Amino acid sequence: MRITVKLYALLGRYLPPGSKDNQTELEVDDGTTPAAVMRRLALPPEQCHLVLINGLYVPPGERDRQALADGDALAIWPPVAGG
Amino acid sequence: MSWTRTILRVDLTNGTCAPEPLNMGWAMKYLGQRGLATKYFVEETDPKVDPLSPDNKMIMATGPLTGTCASTAGRYSVITKGALTGAIACSNSGGFFGNEMKNAGYDMIIFEGRAPNPVYLLIQNDDARLLDASEFWGKSVWDTEEGIKAKHQDPLIRVASIGVSGEKGCKFACVVNDMHRAAGRSGVGTVMGSKNLKAVAIRGTLGVAVDDAPRFLAAADAGKKVLADNAVTGQGLPTFGTQVLMNVINETGALPTRNSREVQFDGAKDISAEAMAEKRVSDGKANLITNAACFACTIACGRVSAIERTHYTVAERPQYQVASGGLEYEAAWALGAATGVNDLDALTFANFICNEQGMDPISLGATVGAAMELFESGAIGTAETGGIELRFGSAEALTQVTELVGLGEGFGVDVGLGSKRLCEKYGNPDLSMTVKGQEFPAYDPRGIQGMGLTYATANRGACHLRSYTVASEILGVPEKTDPLTTDGKAALVKAFQDATAAVDSSGLCVFTTFAWTLDDIAPQIDAACEGSWSTDTLLEVGERIWTLERQYNLDAGFTGKDDSLPKRLLKDAAKTGPAKGLVNGLDKMLPEYYQLRGWTADGVPTNETLQRVAL
Fold first, then answer.
1. Regions of chain B with pLDDT less than 50
2. Looking at the complex, does the CB of residue A61 fall below 8 Å from at least one CB of chain B?
3. How large is the angle between the packed helices B361-376 and B395-407, nearest 10 degrees?
4. What is the pLDDT of residue A64?
């Protein structure tokens, strides 16, 4: 299945070369979790603060349990804030 | 200490400046800045006063920590009755001006009356004088600041001034200090303009004394270490600034877009922090040049940007081909998503003009968005706009209108009314995305439910800085809550409101609270100031301030019915994203909020509550 991975702020450097708009598409196995994608892209776990699937928050304890579905968008940020 | 114990009272009508002792009894109950100045303001003015009347007063106030070496301790606020809202107004600014006021020996400056002709106030320690400002009237903030420094041959003078928009009566005019830091919201600059007060220029060299210096230095150092070690204040904010939120809030489906018709903007990626940092193909340079810090700040979230020299906004205008104040998140949202414009350099240019002419970019962008909807719906046409095709997504229309508002000319006069008055004037009041007359900022309450209650109950009109529940609902600070539910949001909003009121009264920046709690702040205040200041004391002070502001608004004529939201947010469900199908559940949160506050079902503090908070 195919998913969209979006990596923002300092995590953008972990995207494959040639990626645009802070995102790339990945071919992944059925049942793949956010944690598995993070490992595949060598993302430092401590930098993966905000993890969203289709805009919905995935708590840290769910990141190696919640399965992604075909067409999902996985977006990840390091600790950020604003206002 | 660390108050200077001195107020400067400036009678603009009679042209006098006189120091007087600070009421230390009030300082112990209201701390400083927002709280203490509001107490003075409430005691000295009629709540029914016309904001633009000479009888309205305007106070510039520091906090007890302003001017000390605590991190971010350079803040000051402008307190008055807002020209945009008719409610209590308190707008907070960074930069270096607040520090200079404190070092000149003043906790606050109270302006009353109206000068018969334009004046500026010059303060050099205990020498305070009103001087003729006729040579600066009609000039921008930037020219005024440079002109005053040149006239007095002192580049170290710090200046807070209004631009042409404030002179011309734009309802959302700011007071801008240090070229691009602003007391931005509610039209405090409009009030300043109504008083014929062009600028306040200060050089202070007296120093700021603290109560227990060794203990204060230890507490301040401990606080700085917490900020440095925290991933948000130590890395995220200095590197990407507040603008890093653009993609976050868009992804979560809470980015108010095209006057809140939608909650996600397909151009968000083009106007984000990531876009600001990306090198352009044309010249190999990025929009973002560097970050910047205000006085004593160890976070340094400020943005300094430059526009591509061939961009249509600056190609023929070399004065704007410079490094200047760049886009912060709220400005980028209002000038961009709210108007559907995704041209980063056009937004940067509009932001420059807001700084140059002293306008609140939140209110400006949101009002342009409302005007675009009026135009597209046919409620107004080119006859009203002076020929401008005011359509969503038009960068040219945005920058044209921004310049007109800045100069108070043409259709800019209408937009300068603010969204509420503009939409009422053209027969579509429901198109105004405002609460108590103030445009709401960059978080859609359908996607972040707590922000609906935040906007509805904010004492200065819709505002994110009165209870930033986004920290909890989206960012997980101090702990994650679900943005799509109303459960628990009444207590969350009250907790944020009370704590923020205390921070806003201290002289510190509210951004410290991404890392600090009141447990980090209280020891710094306690060591610097006389009296005993604990976390509990600060929470009591915060609730007292909130209730005082509420009582003022009730006396001014507001009621619980004004604690509401635009119909669009309550009736029209979000069309996309996680909040698809949701409206804001204000009706579920507001009664619980009133109950937690100890207010009646109509939103009026009970006598027991007034006694409990010692009002």
1. none
2. no
3. 120
4. 96
Paired strand residues for B267: none
pLDDT value for B303: 97
B244 — contact with chain A (CB < 8 Å)?
Answer: yes
Can you tell me whether residue B15 is helix, strand or coil? coil
Residues 6+ apart with CB under 8 A from B76: B33, B60, B61, B62, B63, B66, B92, B93, B97, B98, B101, B183, B507
Contact map slice: B 457-516 vs A, CB within 8 A:
464-465, 468, 470-471, 474-477, 480, 482-483, 510-511, 514
Residues in chain A: 83
Burial B44-59 (b: 16+ CB within 10 A, else e): ebebebebbebbbbbb
| pLDDT at B477 (0 to 100) | 87
Per the CB < 8 A criterion, the answer to whether B231 and B192 are in contact is no
Per-residue pLDDT of chain A (83 residues; tens, 9 = 90+): 999 999 999 999 999 998 999 999 999 999 999 999 999 999 999 999 999 999 999 999 999 999 999 999 999 999 988 87
Question: For chain B, which domains are there?
Answer: 6-203 (3.60.9.10), 238-438 (1.10.569.10), 445-514+534-612 (1.10.599.10)
Domain spanning A2-77, CATH class: alpha beta
ipTM above 0.95, yes or no: yes
Q: How far is A11 from chain B (nearest CA, A)?
A: 11
